[in-house]
Predict the 3D structure of the following.
Amino acid sequence: TTPGIMQFIASFSEFFGGLALVVGLLTPLAALGIAATMLGAIFIAHAGDPWIDTKGGRSFEMASLFLLSSLVLMILGAG
């Protein structure tokens, strides 16, 4: 199980990081927070899951997609 403080940090990062990306405020910093959260999701929450599960189960495909898109925003910026 994940400690409560880590759950709070992840939810804070996802909510306010996504809000900052929508508004365009501090885009590299917001994308860094989302990338860190998605790394945690891939390596902690989806540790034994496959890349894609064709039967509709758990997979880390979406977490890796969000990680990649946040890394692109972090590197290239909002413009």
The radius of gyration is 13 Å. The mean pLDDT is 89. DSSP finds three helices and no strands in the chain. The helical segments are 4-23, 27-45, 61-76.
